[in-house]
Amino acid sequence: MNEDTLGRALGALRTTRMSEAASDRVREELENAWRDRASRQTRRRGLVVPGFARAFAIAALVFAVGLGTLRAGADSPLYGARIALEDGLVGLQADPVGYLSELYQERLEEAARFEATGNALAAGRARDAQEDALRLLNKIEPQAQQEPPQPSPSTAITLPSPSPTPEATVAPTPVPTPTPTLAPTVRPATQRPATAPPTVTDKPVTTAPTPAPTPTQFAVHVTGTVTYADSTAVNDACVSLTLDGSCVATTVNGKMDFWLFAKKYDGIAVYVKKIDLMSGRTLRGKITGTVTGPTLVLGNVTLR
């Protein structure tokens, strides 16, 4: 077939007309196809979820997940997310020290509860979270240190001085004047012995003992120095509150400076260790102190 033959064939198609039966069949098929397409689009539009409904569902899901995370215990897989979320809220608090104090107390009670039930794994997680609260407190380092309240002179209470009690005056007993009597002619009457009045004894008053107030925990600023045996300052030594525990602070120019939570008259043990890069030995030191206020000044720790 050449180009001339193809051109004549296409020219003949221009004048060719479809039969009416075939035309009706094609028109009917096209109408059916359009109706099916329109019905499918209508069904799709009916299943479309509005935008505000999707946003509300997402917000509700996020709220439910956040609430479940904040209530997760140390035995839950969400406990790590809860600790991260609580630690992230420290920067948004007006009083970060008070917020960390509450976190420390909650995690301390949670660790004690799991230790009482025998769940060592959950108790260990709570102890790690407790030390994490201490590390955050040491990073914040508030400028204002808490001072114990001092009584002001205007609130002094004066007690009235006791007034002298007047002594009782004893009136003198008159001495009877003897009178002359005649010889007795009548038998003298027998006098009855005087009966002493009953002695009334007061019952001792029993006072109920006053319960001693339970001491509360507060933030304590701990300072001290760390040196080698030759009295040189130690840098980058690990400071912990337990033997081989996690570091709550590191020494800088031979000084340790960190915060912890404790009660008044609590005994605090501080452990310091550093690995000697020359010999590979681990040098250790320990010092103890008693909390009496918001500041605890320890002495010098010598690493050996």
Question: Can you characterise this structure?
Answer:
This protein is an alpha+beta fold and 304 residues long. Among the domains are: 51-140, no CATH class; 218-302, Immunoglobulin-like (Sandwich). Helix content is 37%, strand content 16%. The chain is built from six helices and seven strands. The protein has a four-stranded antiparallel beta sheet, with no helix packed on it. Helix 5 (96-117) packs antiparallel against helix 6 (120-140). The longest helix has 28 residues, at 20-47. The relative contact order is 0.08. Residues 142-161 and 180-186 have low confidence and may be disordered.
Task: List the SSEs and their pairings.
Layout: H1 3-14, H2 20-47, H3 51-70, H4 79-88, H5 96-117, H6 120-140, E1 218-227, E2 238-240, E3 249-250, E4 255-262, E5 267-275, E6 282-290, E7 295-302
Parallel strand pairs: 1-7
Antiparallel strand pairs: 1-4, 2-3, 2-5, 5-6
Question: Keywords, please?
Answer:
304 residues, 4-stranded antiparallel beta sheet, alpha+beta, 16% strand
What's a concise summary of this model?
The chain has 304 residues and is α+β, with helices and mostly antiparallel strands. The chain has 6 helices and 7 strands.
Would you tell me the structural class of the helices and strands? alpha+beta
Strand neighbour order, sheet with most strands = 3-2-5-6
Give the distance, in angstroms, between the N- and C-terminal Cα atoms: 106 Å
Mean pLDDT level: 75
